[in-house]
């Protein structure tokens, strides 16, 4: 039968905290109750998320996750970013809650997506709508910190990972580890290894992307000193006009990180 709808039901420590956070992202409340059990239903256009409260719940140990399929990943990320800047004065890049940036995922057939990690520790994974019939995921999500997500969608060639060279390959691997699996420390080790062995023919744009992403991961780990150093190194790389255009997303991310650093 067609036209079914699935609404994720996710855990949290406080439905009030969840409700306040998602309002920042443009959601409205369609239902809220305290008794007999705390429960809230939220909606942003066709995107619906429901949450239930568990006393003593630890967001850091959450297994909650869901996929959001949208026609425009970049636009949704811009809307969420704008909401965060208006409410918090910055895009949240560290701690819980936080949001990653759209990046191509090697483990998701090169599809570009981003994640919102909400106050309940739930990973809301945003991917583009398929251009054709979706391919089935090869494995289910068991934990955001232990299992990669295989994308249920295909992508155009322009969105596929083009890992040419050691630094680019390190970046692609690190994105899988940190943005898909939540293993930030292993991603840091991968990037640090690549940065420790620069090569003369490294693409300067990729080098900037690696340094800015390393700064972002340092922020996740509350390592402000390393984040500051990586952003300074990225700023010292000379880019021509074409390279500056290709590095636009990384440079925008660097600006957000500087604001977060204060």
Automatic annotation (TrEMBL):
Stored InterPro entries: Glyas_Bleomycin-R_OHBP_Dase, TPR-like_helical_dom_sf
Gene3D superfamilies named among the record's database cross-references: 2,3-Dihydroxybiphenyl 1,2-Dioxygenase, domain 1
Disordered: annotated span: 135-156
Protein name (Swiss-Prot/TrEMBL): VOC family protein
Top-level taxonomic group: Bacteria
């Amino acid at each position: 039968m067609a036209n079914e709808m699935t609404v994720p039901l996710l855990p949290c420590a406080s439905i009030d905290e969840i409700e306040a956070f998602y309002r920042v992202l443009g959601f409205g409340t369609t239902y809220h109750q305290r008794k007999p059990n705390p429960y809230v239903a939220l909606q942003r256009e066709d995107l619906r998320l429901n949450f239930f409260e568990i006393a003593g719940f630890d967001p850091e140990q959450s297994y909650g996750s869901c996929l959001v399929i949208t026609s425009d990943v970049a636009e949704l990320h811009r809307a969420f970013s704008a909401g965060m800047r208006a409410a918090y004065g910055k895009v949240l890049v560290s701690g819980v809650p936080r949001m990653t940036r759209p990046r191509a995922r090697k483990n998701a057939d090169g599809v570009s997506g981003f994640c919102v990690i909400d106050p309940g520790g739930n990973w809301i994974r945003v991917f583009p709508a398929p251009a054709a019939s979706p391919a089935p995921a090869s494995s289910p999500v068991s934990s955001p910190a232990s299992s990669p997500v295989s994308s249920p969608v295909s992508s155009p060639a322009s969105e596929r990972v083009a890992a040419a060279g050691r630094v680019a390959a390190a970046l692609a691997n690190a994105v899988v580890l940190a943005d898909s699996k939540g293993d930030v420390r292993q991603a840091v080790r991968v990037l640090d290894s690549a940065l420790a062995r620069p090569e003369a023919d490294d693409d300067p744009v990729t080098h900037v992307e690696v340094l800015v992403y390393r700064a972002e991961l340092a922020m996740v780990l509350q390592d402000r000193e390393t984040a500051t150093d990586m952003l300074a190194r990225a700023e010292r790389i000379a880019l021509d006009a074409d390279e500056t255009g290709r590095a636009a997303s990384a440079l925008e991310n660097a600006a957000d990180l500087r604001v977060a650093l204060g």
